[in-house]
């Protein structure tokens, strides 16, 4: 009876996890944690897998969530606007890029209408990512009763300029939240203008209803306060809420000097615990030697490791930096595909038909050193099934890179890829 009562009155406090200043124990860091994950008898399906990830990140898996994944910008933005229209008390909107185009104007209209009916609206955009957005756009937002800040304004505190807010978060009433790879811009598919398929970026976004939305409000508050916003109250989360049936979600959030080592270790643990399949989609791929080793070790264990990477990119040098790792990966049995129809901007993972991840983190130096990021790791078979189906559909529009053909590419391309790889920490 006492155990039941303690469980019933448990509360999760609105604090950042991992905590600022936390030092990840050596055995849980990338390079060491893979052994612990590999030794789990049932891999990702093992009860110890969730315990291991909780040890790494210091955050709980939150149950009781409903998840829907969007692979099309029009559908994702429509769902986000519907959530904004339904807001009763609060809207928290954070985006690396917030454009003054048809999509940005659509969100401005909806958030202004929400503010006019008494909803508290807070908007946070990265100053560098949104540098093309006019001052008049932000003035219109402020004049309409929306509180907004730009993260690390350009030419102020020059030391901080490399550090950017790369998150894409929408939280409504702390009950429903969205995150993924989509910034606010019509390149993902405009609801007002028809775009040619080749001009519409391929990306992935996710909506979650439940306790994970509460934690994403806590994540938003970190960037908001850092940018100059006032602290706002977030009530504790009742413990019984996270034990309801539904998807179990681990919110992976990071910023420079907080959570970056943990996010890298969680991803490494997923790769090392996989027993059947590990399918990764990533927009800017320059992972470093240890990540290449982890993927190669998974392939050596018989795991079906596949990478879906861009066949064209809005940052060509980043694509060529990734090419510098292809040879080592292919040699170890990792299969690599390049998506052809349009720019690939998604950052996702699905493993063993059980665990999937959607968020803003690229597998490159910038995401793990300079950027604030947010990803959702979801332990939910229906969601993983949707992710696997989408991955296979994308492969139908991708070209597989073969080792022998890759070795025969012209020497000029090899040199360009090598130089780009050297430059990857600066991208």
Give a written overview of the molecule:
- The chain has 427 residues and is an alpha+beta fold.
- It has two domains: 23-64 and 247-426, Endonuclease Chain A (Endonuclease, Chain A, 2-Layer Sandwich), CATH 3.30.870.10; 67-226, 2-Layer Sandwich (Endonuclease, Chain A), CATH 3.30.870.
- 36% of the residues lie in helices and 22% in strands.
- It contains 15 helices and 18 strands.
- The strands form two sheets. It has a 16-stranded mixed sheet that branches.
- β15 (348-351) and β16 form a beta hairpin.
- α3 runs antiparallel to α8 (260-273).
- The longest helix has 16 residues, at 211-226.
- It starts with a helix and ends with a helix.
- Mean pLDDT is 93; it is low at 1-7.
| CATH class division of the largest domain | Alpha Beta
Low-confidence regions: 1-7
Structural class: alpha+beta
Query: Helix count, per DSSP?
Result: 15
- Helix % is 25-40%
Assign an overall shape. Answer: globular
CATH superfamily of the largest domain: Endonuclease Chain A
Strand content: 15-25%
Number of separate domains: 2
The count of β-strands is 18
Could you tell me the CATH topology label of the largest domain.
Endonuclease, Chain A
The CATH architecture assignment of the largest domain turns out to be: 2-Layer Sandwich
Give the biggest beta sheet: 16 strands, mixed
> How far do the termini sit from each other?
57 Å
């Amino acid at each position: 009876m006492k155990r039941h009562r303690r469980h019933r009155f448990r509360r999760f406090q609105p604090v950042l996890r991992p905590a600022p200043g936390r030092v990840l124990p050596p055995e849980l860091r990338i390079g060491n944690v893979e052994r612990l994950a590999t030794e789990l008898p049932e891999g990702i399906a093992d009860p110890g897998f969730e315990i291991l990830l909780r040890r790494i990140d210091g955050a709980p898996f939150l149950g009781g969530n409903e998840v829907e994944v969007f692979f099309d910008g029009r559908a994702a933005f429509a769902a986000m606007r519907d959530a904004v229209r339904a807001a009763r008390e609060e809207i928290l909107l954070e985006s690396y890029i917030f454009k003054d185009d048809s999509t940005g104007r659509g969100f401005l209209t909806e958030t202004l209408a929400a503010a006019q009916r008494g909803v508290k609206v807070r908007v946070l955009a990265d100053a560098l990512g949104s540098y093309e957005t006019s001052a008049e756009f932000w003035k219109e937002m402020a004049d309409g009763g929306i509180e907004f800040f730009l993260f690390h304004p350009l030419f102020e505190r020059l030391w901080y300029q490399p550090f950017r807010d790369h998150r894409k978060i929408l939280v409504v009433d702390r009950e429903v939240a969205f995150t993924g790879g989509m910034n606010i811009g019509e390149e993902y598919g405009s609801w007002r203008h028809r775009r040619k398929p080749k001009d519409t970026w391929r990306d992935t976004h996710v909506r979650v209803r439940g306790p994970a939305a509460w934690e994403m409000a806590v994540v938003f508050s970190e960037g908001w306060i850092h940018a100059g916003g006032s602290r706002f109250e977030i009530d504790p989360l009742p413990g019984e809420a996270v034990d309801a049936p539904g998807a179990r979600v681990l919110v992976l959030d990071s910023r420079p000097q907080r959570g970056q080592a943990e996010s890298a270790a969680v991803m490494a643990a997923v790769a090392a615990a996989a027993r059947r399949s590990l399918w990764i989609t990533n927009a800017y791929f320059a992972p470093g030697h240890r990540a290449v080793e982890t993927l190669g070790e998974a392939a050596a264990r018989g795991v079906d490791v596949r990478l879906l990477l861009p066949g064209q990119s809005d940052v060509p040098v980043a694509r060529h930096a990734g090419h510098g790792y292809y040879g080592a990966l292919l040699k170890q049995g990792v299969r690599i595909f390049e998506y052809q129809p349009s720019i690939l901007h998604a950052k996702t993972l699905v493993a063993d038909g059980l665990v999937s991840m959607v968020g803003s983190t690229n597998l490159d130096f910038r995401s793990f050193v300079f950027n604030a990021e947010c990803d959702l790791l979801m332990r939910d078979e229906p969601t993983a099934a949707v992710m696997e189906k989408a991955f296979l559909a994308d492969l139908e529009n991708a070209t597989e890179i073969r080792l022998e053909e890759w070795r025969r590419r012209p020497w000029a391309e090899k040199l360009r890829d090598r130089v780009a790889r050297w430059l990857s920490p600066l991208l």
